[in-house]
Specification:
single chain; two-stranded antiparallel ribbon; 2 strands
Length: about 300
């Protein structure tokens, strides 16, 4: 990560972490176990990519972090809820997340499910609270609720997860032909929804809350599409080639016969596809000029990261 991008991440991750600590119910509030479970996963050491994208989207449109902080925290809570549920035995059945036991391994399946539910619910409360920030229009908050709900629901992340589950254990070889024109189209559908949808929602939310123009919002949405897909390509490649200790996981997509870019295109072509996506992401930012400098650096980092 380049120094300018690292400073941007470090500064805003600190701001987000302080806000999350303030906005999450304390461990001492009853029922204590659910609040402990919520905090356990939120504080598991993530990159804070989605809340930082909310801030980056805001700043690219002339806004400030303080104006969008509740929504930034909301996006992190939605992302965390999705990880808690993804790890459950009925889903991916993982016992490690970021090098720590997964939520259900510590608190049990029932509390893990409820912790995810509680984080999703609290997230929309925080977006509503963003209407209190100086300079934020109520109409903008309504638009953001719609954008985030679409990005998180069956038209976005949940829909992508469903397609991913239905394609596991090699079933994508048939489903890709039966439901879509090809497995490649199925793969794109899964990751446009499962991964890219919430990334796009993060960028667009920051832009909308900051009064971004239609052209600016469209540019950030297109950028989010391409970095979201590239992020998943990089994840798929790292699952094959990365250090499992750095990745904080044990299992692999290959073991589960999942539909991934390397499974479909091979490792070398997958790397090339990721680079092509990042080139498109850079192109999408042209309308934002110099205000997109950090976003350009972020795009390069996404495809070059090692965990």
């Amino acid at each position: 990560m380049k120094p300018v991008l690292k400073r941007f991440f470090d500064r805003n991750a600190l701001v987000v972490n302080r806000a999350l600590d303030r906005l999450l119910p304390a461990n001492t509030v009853q029922p204590r176990v659910i609040h402990k479970a919520m905090r356990y996963s939120v504080n598991a050491g993530g990159k804070r990519l989605r809340p930082i994208l909310v801030i980056a989207g805001a700043e690219a449109c002339g806004g400030r972090a303080a104006r969008v902080l509740p929504t930034a925290c909301a996006l992190e809570m939605i992302h965390t809820y999705s990880l808690i549920h993804d790890d459950l035995p009925a889903m991916d059945d993982d016992d490690l997340r970021r090098g720590r036991p997964t939520n259900h391994r510590v608190f049990g399946d029932a509390i893990a499910i409820l912790a995810g539910d509680a984080l999703l619910t609290l997230a929309f409360r925080l977006i509503a609270d963003n209407a209190r920030a100086a300079g934020v229009r109520n109409a903008a908050v309504i638009d953001v609720v719609r954008v985030v709900a679409d990005g998180a629901g069956t038209a976005g992340m949940v829909g992508g997860q469903v397609a991913d589950i239905e394609s596991e254990n090699g079933r994508w070889k048939k489903a890709g032909k039966r439901i879509f024109a090809s497995p490649a189209r199925l793969l794109e559908f899964i990751h446009l929804n499962k991964t890219a949808a919430l990334i796009r929602a993060s960028l667009v939310s920051g832009a909308v809350l900051s009064g971004g123009t239609k052209k600016e919002v469209a540019a950030l949405d297109a950028y989010g599409r391409w970095i979201g897909l590239a992020f998943q390509v990089a994840d798929d490649v790292l699952d094959r080639t990365g250090d499992k200790k750095k990745l904080g996981k044990r299992g692999s997509d290959a073991q589960n016969e999942k539909l991934t870019y390397p499974a479909l295109f091979g490792l070398d072509r997958s790397v090339d596809i990721g680079r092509e996506m990042i080139a498109r992401a850079h192109g999408a930012l042209k309308p934002l000029g110099k205000r997109a400098a950090v976003l350009h650096e972020l795009a390069d980092y996404i495809i070059a990261r090692d965990h």
